[in-house]
Amino acid sequence: MSDVKKLYIKTYGCQMNVYDSERMAEVMGGQGYVETKTPEDADMILLNTCHIREKAAEKVYSELGRFKPLKTAKPDLKIGVAGCVAQAEGEEIMLRQPMVDLVVGPQSYHRLPAMEAKVDAGEKALDTDFPEEDKFEKLKGRPKAQRGPTAFLTVQEGCDKFCAFCVVPYTRGAEVSRPVDRILTEARDLVERGVREITMLGQNVNAYHGAGPDGDWSLAKLIWALNDIDGLERIRFTTSHPNDMTDDLIAAHGECEKLMPYLHLPVQSGSDKILKRMNRSHTAESYLKLIERIREARPDILMSGDFIVGFPEETEADFQDTMELIRQVNYGQAFSFKYSTRPGTPAAERAQVDEAEASDRLKRLQALITDQQRAVQDSMVGREVQVLFEKPGRLEGQMVGKSEYLHAVHVAGAPVQRGDIGRVRIVESGPNSLAGELI
């Protein structure tokens, strides 16, 4: 009889959760688990949750309800909730869904083996601490699988900004930066396993200040160290705060050959009144001047952003300020959301914007952003780009990859493999991707 156990992980939300899920899979791989794509085959189900989206907790409870028949049919099936909803809800999850065996916060998943042992002993396991030990250090030496050509690498966690709408400081904790040597070791290991592009992750990644051999390093200095790794061809980072776009980081966009011409820089609103109420600590004018400086350093950079509409006390005039800022920046990509309350955050206690009005504003904003995104994509036709090929496309003989600007590019009949970087001429712009021919 095989000792191999099967693990199903469902990941919600942000890229950092994708990274965390990979590490949880490695942790449980050391306990004899292999991943499965279907919960029906699983011996353990983990939901790695995100608290950013609207009604995040209720969606998790709904998902758990769908697993009840599996638990009934297989009583030994272990079900766990991880991530930010686990951190925020804690024991409440077990009270509302008694079939849940373990709840683990995002700072404690290195303790999953001990939690599994507790469940095996017939107990519930709950760990939503902010432990003193470094979870990344505890994860060293875990089994490592072969990788695709791209990978996420967490370099910083937590946030000290305390935006009025955000739960991250409460669920991920204060800003913590990983030491330089551990990041570079993990990066070299990823490259040895086939990775050619690394995206550095952090809730506030450009606030990175990790301990280096000669004192604390900035994110820019870390980028230059990654730039020197043979075999690593591309570097990206997300998500950034405008207040932490330092001079050396801006300069790196113009000087570092492996740092890709794409920057996600959330502004959230174009109204100074709303930005102040959000506790964003920047103004629309300072943001626009920052964009000018970044584009001076790298004129072809593609800008991406985040927007919240319907924030408490937002008027139509405030909303129009946001629309004007979008017109001035001309985003190649952007993410937009209708404000929804997060219990425990300052904004949750304020007078809310009418739901119908907020929905209408979101619709208008997304229409403008869609027009900008499509115009930027259309402008790529006829240009030559470098594409990192990641996987086969849906059509026979087709390969799909990403350009320097993070556009998905489909190429038919190209004699390339996963991990190859090819020069491609763009011949067509579709709704969400580009088509090109290998040169």
C-alpha Rg, in Å? 22 Å
Share of helix, binned: 25-40%
- What is the strand content? 15-25%
Q: CATH superfamily of the largest domain, please?
A: tm_1862 like domain
Structurally, the number of domains stands at 3
Average predicted confidence as pLDDT: 92
- Got a strand count? 21
Unreliably modeled segments: none
CATH class of the largest domain: Alpha Beta
Distance between the termini: 53 Å
Architecture of the largest domain in CATH?
Alpha-Beta Horseshoe
> What is the third-level CATH name, the topology of the largest domain?
pyruvate-formate lyase- activating enzyme
Can you list the strand order of the major beta sheet? 2-1-3-4-5-6
Number of helices: 15
Oligomer: single chain
